[in-house]
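Two records follow; treat each independently.
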Amino acid sequence: MTGGAITGTKRENPGRNLPQGHPEVPEPRIGLLLINLGTPDGTDYRSMRRYLGEFLSDRRVIELSPWLWQPLLQGVILTTRPSRSGRNYAKIWNRERDESPLRTITRAQAEGLGARFADGEGVVVDWAMRYGSPSIGARLEALAEQGCRRILLAPLYPQYSAATTATACDQAFRALMTQRWQPAVRTLPAYHDDPGYVDALAESVRQGLERLDWEPEVLLASFHGLPKENLAKGDPYHCHCQKTARLLREALGWPEQRLRIVFQSRFGPKEWLQPYADVTVAELARQGVTRLAMISPGFAADCVETLEELDIGLRETFLEAGGERFAYLPCLNDAPGSLDLLERLTRRELAGWLAA
């Protein structure tokens, strides 16, 4: 399954006198490409191996020499991990569409955002994945075919990291290197402390808690982890996560102990950003906390890391350690508040282009 433009159609420029045999020239438009991490095409071994192979071969993700890393990746990790990861994806797979929830939600975000732009604004909204399909290169080509001479790249990562935002932009720039007539390009910056983002998170938490018939003693804000050495190398991700959690806490009017920050998804022998989510969840239960809720402010859309790792895996960890009530509150996804935020952020970055 591939992405598709959400608004705009290919049209000739009326009144333009083109030489005989000259290719049709579409009317100039503005492209807006939403980019998320990626997804396998299926839960089977081959689909998972292909996806994990692309993901784990990214030098932004695994900062080891390929001479050291690739033999381990190709010989051990990609022999065993695809089956295990496939089972995790199978637990949360959207069987109606036969795709991962991340693909379903990202498509819905693009469709919802596309509907926010009037026909006369000439904005074509599309979506792509850094790993897997629809690929960034394919969707940039599709935007070019529709006459998009100006393109806003919008990586959907509130907190900046070289392993997320940077690699998404890297891949887009690689694709642009193959184009003879490159468009003008802008990139959406991190929005970890944007007031609209914080307000959307706070409202999402309030609505999520209202749906419960019990009140959590602690709310954990879980962010995807990174090796601790990335912080020392100058990656601002850890600081961005901390600021998001602080601003959200202030917006909710909560004390520090009621909303705490943790980091999930670590692997390998290196020390990662702490406190670790799985360790913290178990410790809270052993300390007598019986009611726990979790959110994932760093994910723009629910995915295997939230729906399987948190809502299934850490739920089991908490209950087995003595906890009694556990709730995972969904990401912003394609809710109205999320679309309001995306529209606000992208219109800000399109300033001047839209007027033109």
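The next record belongs to a different protein.
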Amino acid sequence: MTTTKHWSVEVSIGENDGRTYAEARLQTSDNDTTELRGHGEARLNPADEDVPEIGDEVAVARALSDLGHRVLLAAAADIRAISDEPVHLHR
């Protein structure tokens, strides 16, 4: 029998003082309290045209990348905890 799991990622975006901030939150299951968060930021270069969607995209991409790295770190910690061996997971 195949088991399917569902993890959810929620992304929040905000702006303040010419900077766009994003937070990506991973919930690993409905009844699990495990939650990892990734953060990203973008700022408008004063010489560039202000296109808010681009700031959102950059901040979100950075938040998702940070979240992915944190998931790898969590997996490495879990492997280390059960194997008591050094772990080297690469991005």
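Discussion point: The first helix runs from residue 52 to 83. How would you locate this feature using only the token line?
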